[in-house]
Amino acid sequence: MEKIIINGGNPLKGTITVSGAKNAVLPIMAASLLAEGPCRLMDIPRLADVTTMSEVLGFLGGRIVPEGPQEMEIDCSEITSVEAPYEYVRRMRASFLVMGPLLARVGRARMSLPGGCAIGTRPIDLHLKGFAALGASISIGHGSIEATAPELVGARVYLDFPSVGATENIMMAAALAKGVTVIENAAEEPEIVDLANFLCSMGARVMGAGTKIIKIEGVKHMRGVTHGVIPDRIEAGTYMVMAAATGGDVLVDNVITDHLKPVVAKLAEAGVQVKEEGSGIRVRSSRPLCAVDIKTLPYPGFPTDMQAQTMALMTGAQGTSVVTETVFENRFMHVNELKRMGASIIIEGHSAVVKGVPRLTGAKVKATDLRAGAALVVAGLMADGETEIAAVQHIDRGYENMVQKLQAVGADITREERDGEECRLCD
Ligand code: EPU
After folding, report:
1. Measured between alpha carbons, how far is 313 from 270 in angstroms, rounded to an integer?
2. Ligand 1 centre and the CA of 164: distance in Å?
3. Ligand 1, atom 7, residue with closest C-alpha
4. I want to staple 20 with a disulfide (CB 3.0 to 4.6 A). Which of 43, 84, 137, 351 is the partner?
């Protein structure tokens, strides 16, 4: 079994370049299904989830040709299947994002039900509500969902929660629908804006992306285009936290600073020096930091995808922080692992009360999901002695070359084969 081994204590110093955004590239790859010609995507991160989405598109009849390390051509001119089997959906929930484009392009889509995962039950009712509003018939049975619609017709869809995935799936379905669709209480994440820009360059008419109301005027055809993916704000935030956690001085380069406002604000509140520098953000800190409270919210609130890493940072801060998770029902799986390293954390409902301790101690721990894994790397970099992180395949889903990037700024971190029990992928 491959594990990440960290000997903590080294302050990180140097430059880390951020890769393309996982949560932007996955819906954009799915949206390639809408085009009648090949799309060329640039700034693609090399991640396990990108490989899975390529496999899903390939299964549906797409032709995916990697072009250099960070580019690929996706040609979905011919769609030969309308079904995403369980094998893929189980491996990656975002496989579900092909449903909207398939429905729009060929009038039918069949998906295995995603089920629960490590961070909660994660229903898909809002995606289905949107498809039904556009006129699709939905049937659920035998572990799968089928949606059919000889013709999608634009409609008004109110989302009870600004779900990122539902906003994306409905936007993609509406792009080729007849008439106008309005999504109210839409998600405002930067990844939604990147998808909208991609759709517009393909010929779609999407207005208001990045606000709570998105209007889509359906078009008849969409063409293949070239598109560069935005930088990953969560990867950037994770390295900013790691720099802060180690008392380091790191330029996190290739970022869109606007996307990182909540993370920058909280780090500054904790006493970290954060400064824009060219196309990056420089993070300097001298420990100890002060405890700050965190409450996750949809964008532009504090991102749930940064909650675990920031909690790990708070385990070494002076004072008590309250970390409240409002987006997912069960995103505290990292707490028990952090406690194994000496952190003092008590869970009270949707909040975790973190009492800063002077030192964490290296231990054998296990990543339970992507961001929980990143939090354990933060903790390992801060801790005295050796930390051994198992189930690192979770980290590979969302961080391109994390070990190499951290080695380059002075971390004592390696990836090794070591004995240990097999661990199943849970989300
Ligand atoms: N929800 C519903 N019904 C739905 C859809 C969502 O109740 O039909 C609930 C979910 O259960 C959850 C909340 O709404 O409690 C937010 O879910 P959302 O749909 O916004 O999340 P997602 O689209 O499944 C994306 C990211 C996640 C990120 C969330 C929130 C991708 C591929 N995934 O998931 O990323 O946490 O938005 O920002 O874009 C990660 O990168 O580690 C990750 C989990």
Report:
1. 10
2. 6
3. 123
4. 43
> Does the CA dihedral 97-60-58-113 come out positive or negative?
positive
The helix/strand/coil state of 235 is helix
Give all domains of the chain, ordered by start, each with its CATH number: 2-19+231-426 (3.65.10.10), 22-228 (3.65.10.10)
Buried residues in 269-301 as b, exposed as e (16+ CB within 10 A): ebbbebeeeeebbbbbbebebebbbbbbebbee
| Cis-peptide, bond into residue 162, ω within 30° of zero | no
Q: Determine the atom of ligand 1 nearest the C-alpha atom of 127.
A: 8
What are 301-341's pLDDT values in tens digits?
Answer: 999 999 999 999 999 999 999 999 999 988 999 999 999 99
Q: For residues 424 and 121, give the distance between their C-alpha atoms in angstroms, rounded to a whole number.
A: 18
pTM: predicted TM-score of the whole model, two decimal places? 0.97
In one-letter notation, the amino acid at residue 375 is: A
Rounded Cα gap, residues 144 and 136, in angstroms:
16
Amino acid type, 142: H
Task: Name the DSSP class of 289.
Answer: P
Cβ-count burial 6-37 (b if 16+ within 10 Å, e if not): bbbbbbbbeebbbbbbbbbbbbbbbbbbbbee
Task: For residue 145, give Cα distances in angstroms to 125, 148, 243, 303.
Answer: 11, 10, 44, 30
273 and 235 Cβ atoms separated by less than 8 Å? no
- Please state, in angstroms and rounded to a whole number, the distance separating the CA atoms of residues 251 and 247: 13
Instruction: Cite the active site residues.
Output: 117
Residue nearest to atom 33 of ligand 1 (CA): 23
pLDDT digit string (tens) for 359-414?
999 999 999 999 999 999 999 999 999 999 999 999 999 999 999 999 999 999 99
CA distance 336 to 316: 16
Residue closest to 5 by CA, chosen among 422, 409, 333, 407: 407
> Exposed e or buried b for every residue in 309-338, given b needs 16+ CB within 10 A?
bbbbbbbbbeeebebbbbbbeebbbbbebb
Alpha carbons within 13 A on the beta-carbon side of 135: 18
Q: What is residue 254's three-state secondary structure? A: coil
Which is it for strands 364-366 and 386-390: parallel, antiparallel or unpaired?
parallel
